[in-house]
Each structure stands twice: as structure tokens, then as C-alpha cells.
Amino acid sequence: MTEPVLTIEGVSKRFGAVEAARGVTLDLRPGEIHALIGPNGAGKSTLIGLTAGTIAPDAGRVALAGRDVTALDAVGRARSGLGRTFQISSLAMEHSVLQNAVLGALGRSGRVMRLFGNVMRDRDLTERAAAALERVGLADQARRRVADLSHGQRRQLEVAVALTLEPKAFLMDEPMAGLGAEGTASLTAFLDTLRGEAPILLVEHDMDAVFALADRISVLVYGQVIATGTADDIRRDPAVREAYLGEDAA
Amino acid sequence: MNAVLLIEQVLNGLQLGVMLFLMSAGLTLIFGVMGLINLAHGSLYMIGAFAAAAVAGATGSFVLGLGAALAAAAAAGALVEVTVIRRLYDRDHLDQVLATFALILIFSEGTRWLFGSFPLFLDIPDALRGPASLPLGIEYPRYRLTIILAGLAVAAGLFLLIAKTRIGIRIRAGEADREMIAALGVDISKLYTLVFALGAALAGLAGALVGAIQSVQVGMGEPVLILAFVVIVIGGIGSIRGAFVASILVGLTDTLGRFLLPIAFGTFMDPSQANLIGTALASMAIYILMAAVLVFRPTGLFGAAT
Amino acid sequence: MIREPILNAVIMAALLAVPLWALWAGEPFTITLATRAAILALAAVGLNIALGLGGLVSLGHAAFFGIGGYAMGILAHHAQTYTPLMEAPFLIEGTKSMPVIWLTAIVAASLAALLIGALSLRTTGVYFIMITLAFGQMLYYFAISWPTYGGEDGLSIYVRNDFPGLNTLRPFPFFAISYVALAVGLFLSWRIAKSPFGLALSAARQNEARVRTVGMDPYRLRLTAFVISGAITGLAGALFADLNRFVSPTMFSWQMSGEFIVFIILGGTARLFGPVVGACLFVILEHWLGGLSDYWLVFLGAILLLVVLFARGGVIGALAGREATHD
Question: What pTM, to 2 d.p., does this model score?
Fold first, then answer.
């Protein structure tokens, strides 16, 4: 069996009286899309924060590519190879599309503290950035300001910036949110090809996309993973049916 | 070292502390409710002092002077809120800083235009002249003692206002969620004008009270404003309780630092050198206190931890 | 609408042409005014790296301006009184050499910016504004209460410092020095804005979570920007003190910090030449309105208020329109 790329092990987080994560354990194996679903308030956002490093866990550990990254913040985890996209687009709005993508390539290159040289004329960075834009279908928008983009185009750019990082694992927070049927279909097709490059931990509300894409699905309820398995396993799981449909497990 | 002298300095520190509270309470309230940083708060302090000095000078009544200070500062505050400040709530902090910096220029030079460059003097009322006898044979100026008590009374009144009255409840609700209380039918723009005028009146009161022990002049407000900022950073933005604790802390640190540091250095250095270093260090004491708070609690002692 | 690079060239040429004309017409005071404008512009160019590019509203840049001023004052004071600055553990003497003074000013201001920045950048927004203001005021009071270098009265320098090969006592050569310093400052800030660091810094201004997610530490970016910014403003301080042959605690005053921000806004935020236009405009207004009324600051306040409320792009915004995102 291959080593998982991303491991979350017994991670807990409490906010006052609320236990947002209770000993969550899941992993992400090479080549797979692992979807995380759960009803609202199940603790998905917290788990994303714990994985991305914006929230420090009370207990448990997170490992990325065999390395313990529990003590690292979001910056450190990004450098260790985690490519995150946000649920609500989080981009430099005054910059152009290309500049946003170059920012990602620059982060990947580790040459951030260079005070000289025109970054937008750096062949290496701009080519990486342009290639990522090409892949998500934004090549013809490169010179537009992000503030002038449509919602769907910003979602595409989110993914493109994550691509420029050439991460070891993707963490995608509802990439389909707000995309029309067509956008969802094309992003679904794209993510399908992406899993070969790096596995994706996918948090998504669009169940059609989840069941179409996911190799495995984990269901989070009240801060706990109540089931992990293939799409069919999950469909049949009595605990899941109870959580979602209120059906009696018996 | 003399215990009586020390107690006197502690009282001086308290007096500075309650004055800083009157300034910082308004600032922190305005920030907490409207999200506005107001550099012109020191101008309202100055307006209070000038109004008090002018009216007391003309009528011979200190009480009328105080009333004029409150009225003038509150009126100036309300006027500025309606004409300028209101347009700044949705702007970024840079715009707020610049616009209120512009207001300082207008107020300061306008006052200089009206009153000239020479300082005015505000006389202490006769009833409060001379020393009051305290236990342990301590004599302390009656007026300063009155300031401390008046400041504490205002502080208590403010706590009651915020905690118990309808207006206070609305102010706290405004801090929590603007849209919600607007949706509940509270006239939010009236509430903002009221909060701003209240803060202005407190600053004007402080200016008038201090005006009787210092000279009343243009530019008197800004050093106090900056001290009030130090207080807010230490206490935590938006917290009246934090402003109170930090005001007293800053007042005592500053006063006792100036008194004790030269003495402390004198125990192991030659006196003139000790005085030099002690005085210079004392002038930085509260800023060092602020830096220390920043290191351990960047959001202030009573600020919401992030 | 004029293209911004052309407008910038015109501004730079005008700032050179006016004193050249004054030299020909025998108007030394105009040269001094132009020098003053160039030096204040340099101070604001420094601030603009933190403020315009990094979004760091520092209301305490007078700290670095004053440190630069005192670096000049202290070194020249020891040179003119023939007393060493310190004897133990090693001898340091005063100097009248501008390059040495500038280097000292830059190093001292950088160190101060590193310290103040490291503390202030732990916070953001209003806290940052209030804290930088407070640290500036701390240095102001320290300068007042430290009697060795004049305390409240400041330090006078009898003769302007030397620059190899130039007669700095005459107004034009000193203007030329200040003008070149401004040009170098502008060049640096232009290069930085285009650099990888500049892209990251301005992205951090717009969206902190974004830069973290691509593995960049915003604190480190901002602290670096703050130090560079302080260093340039410190150099301006040394020149300003040399222009006046006088340094006093007022160089540390909060009004000074406020004025630097005013220059940037009058000219246009996030514009390379915004501080230059703003500082020139300020010096012209100061001279012209100041001649009309002793209370000219009332009018400046009114103008500033109108610009902030109604004309956010400043002068360059009005002339050149929206800036291009990149080339």
C-alpha cells in the first residue's frame, strides 16, 4: 500500500463549548480525490482551517508528504506543498489575472525577497503562470483586473493560482460554489484529470460533482467522521442516511 | 524617600489617569461603535478649554465655564459629525486619518485666529483654592482632588449609562451589529451623532478641568490625544473598562516614573547624571509599557483576543 | 488625460527647471524652496513604500526623519566643537562629511524602523496607526528631555556640511545634491514596486490570506518594506537638517508625520510621483498662502478635507486617470 500524501490524525478543536472537531482522522492517498461532505455546521470549515494551518489544533497531528506539519502555520504548510483554494475567492483584486498567477509561481520559487528585477518580465515565472491560466481556460483574460472578472472566472483563477504552486496535495474548499451548470461540468472534468498530478481533498456541496469525482468520501457530522468509503458505501451507510435523512438507523 | 511625597505623586498620577479616561472613553466608544479613528478628538478637548476660559473670564463663574465647555464641545462634535465624519464611516482608515488631520488644522488655526497666539488662563474657583487636609497629615490641592473625584463620578456615570439605560443598550448593540439594529428601527445616524457628541463632551470637560491647572492654548489637545491612543492600545480598542484601567495605569506610570526613576538611578550614580538619565527614561516609560503590552497581548489588556 | 510616465517626466523636469531659472535670475530663495520641496518629497517617497505599496498607514515616520536629522546634528556638532562622540571602547569622532552623515542616518533610521516595525506590525489597522504615532511621540519627548544635544532648543550647525567636489554653501549645488537624492529614491521605489518583492507586498496589502496561501509571510514582507521606507525617510531627515543647518525635536513631531501623509494624498496614493507633486504643492501653498495669511493652515486643512472627501485620486489621479495594472 502506498503512503498517504496528507494525513490528519486524531485532530480536535474546541471553541468555548463547541467541539468543532472531535478526533478527526482521515488521509489522502496518491492519485485520489477524497471528498469531505457533511451538513451545515458539521465542522467542515474548522477542519479546512486545521488542515490549512489557519487554526491550531488542541490535539492530534497533521502530516504532509511524510513530514509532521502540525506546528506550521498556513505559510509553512503552503511551502511544504499544500495548495489551497478558498470557498469565497481570495485574490489580489487590484492586480491583473496574470499578476495573481505570477504571485503563486513566485511563492513556489521562493524568490520573494528579491528587491530588483521586473517580476512581470521574469520568463520562468510568467510562463508557469500563463500555463496555469491556460489550463483553467483563463489565458485570454490574463491582462484583466481581477475586480472586473465574473464570479466564475475568479473561481477558475483560484484554481489556477493553486496550480502554480505545484503542490503535493490540493485542499479545495467548495470550488463549484456559485458556478453555473456549465461551469460545474467543465471544472468537474478538469479536476478529474488533476488527480493524477496531486491528490485532492475536496470539500463540496454539489453532490453530483462529489459522487462523480470522489474515489472516497468522508462524512463529517458534529465534528466527527461518521463514515469513510466509496460512493456506494456512503450511499448505503445507515449512519449517513440517519444524519442526512433522519432515517432510523435500525 | 518621603512617604507623603510619594502619596502626593500617586494622587497626581490618578488625576492624570482620570483625565486620560475622559479622553480615551470617547475615542474608544467612537471607534467601537462607528469604527472611526478620530485624530480631531484633541481639538474637542481644546475647544472645551477655550470655551470654559472665555465664558468664565467674561462671567466670572467657573461653573458657567464648565457648562459652556460641555455645550461647545458637544455642539462642535455634533456639527463635525453631521458635516464631515458621517462621510468617513465607510472609508478606509487612511481617509479617516487624513480628514481628521485636516480638521485639526482647521480647528487649531481657526482658534488661533479667534483667540490669538497667547495662552488664556482659567482661574480655579475660590471654593476649591488651597490645600485639602487628608489623613496622615497629607495636604493636597483641593482642586486636583476635585478633579479626581469628578472624573471618577463621570466614569461611574458612563458605566451606568452604557450598562443600564436604553441608549446604552443601543450603543452596545451598535457595536455588535450595525445592520441589525438599523433593521430593528433604531435611527442609526442619530445614534452615531449622539455617541460622537457624547465623546466630544467628555473631551471638552477634560479640557476645561485641566485648563484651570495648565494654560489654555492652541495645540494643547494633541499631546493628550496621543496619550489617549497609548491608553487605548494598552486597554484594547472598544473597551470602556480597558480604557479605565489603562488610563489609571498610564497616569501612574508616567507620574511615578518621573518621580521615582531619577531617585532610583541616584542610588548608584552621581545625582546630576542620574537625574538626566532618569528624566529621559521617564519620558519614555509609558511607551515602553505600551511596547510590553504589544509583545504579550497585541490586542490590549481587555481587547478581544484574535 | 496625460500618460503617467510623461507626466512624471514633466514633473521631474519642472522641479529642475525652476531652480535653474532662479539661478539665472539671481533668486536664491526660490532655489531654497525647491530644495525644501525635493527633500520633503524624498521623505514622503520613503513613506510611500510602506503606505502606498504596503498599505501600512504609519503616522510615525517623523521618527525616522528626526533620527536622520539628529544623525547629522550630532556628528556635525562634535566636529564643530572638536569633541569626540565617544572615547571608549573605541574612539568615534564627529564629521562634516555628507556621505558619512548620510550613511549614519540611513543605518540609524533602519535600525529604529526595524525595532518600531517589529513591534507595530504585530498589529494592523487602527492599532498600527496609533502605535506608530505613539512611538514617534516617544522620540519627540526623548529629544526634548535629553539635554546633551540641545533638548528643546535643538542644535545649530554653523556651516553646512561638505560634499567632495561641490561648494555646498551655495544654494544650487546643495539643491543638486537633494535633487539627485530624490531621483535615486524614486528610482529605488520604482524598481521595488516592479520587483518580485513589490508584487508580493502589494498583494499582501490587498489580501493577506492570499499571500499566506502561496507560502509568503506577510509580516516579513511588511517589516522589510517598513525598514526600507524608514531608511529613505531618514536620509531625507539628514538632508533637511543640513538645509536648515539646524535640528530640533520638531522634526520628530506628529505634525511632521501627518504632513508626509498629506503629501502622498495630495499627489495621489500609490502613484510613484504622488509624494513629489504633493510636497511641491505643499511648499508652494505654504509660501503663497502663508504670504497671504498667518492662518494659511486653515486653508490647507480645507483643501485637504475636500481632496479626501471628493477627489481621492489626488493631482496625478485627476491628470492621468486610472493607473494601468501592469505592462
Answer: 0.93
